[in-house]
Amino acid sequence: MRYDKGRNAAPFPGIYERFRNPGMNCNLTEQELWSGLDRHAPEIEAHLSECPDCRARAEGFRLGLSALTEASAPPTPPLPARIGPYTILRRLGEGGMGIVYEGQQHNPRRLVAIKVIRGGPSADEYRVRLFQREAQTLARLKHPAIAAVYEAGRTDDGQHYFTMEHVVGEPLNRYVREHALSRKERLDLFCKICEAIHYAHQRGIIHRDLKPSNILVDRDGNPKVLDFGLARVVGPEAGVTTMTDVGRLMGTLPYMSPEEAAGHPEDMDVRSDVYSLGVLLFELLTGQLPYKVQRAALPQALKTICEEPPPRPGTIDPSLRGDLETIMLKALEKEPARRYQSASALAEDIVRFQRNEPIQARPAGVIYRLRKFAARHAAAVLLVGGFLLIGAGAAGFVRLMGRAQEASARELMDLHDLEMAVIKNRLAEAYWREKLYDQAEPHFRGALATFERLDRRHRIAITRLNLGMLLVDRELRKDSGVVLDDLETRRDDHDFIEAEELLLDALLFFSEHPSEYRNERRMALEYLRTLYGPRVWNDPEGRREIEKALETLRREEAGTLPKPMG
Question: Which of 188, 209, 438, 485 is catalytic?
Answer without folding.
Answer: 209
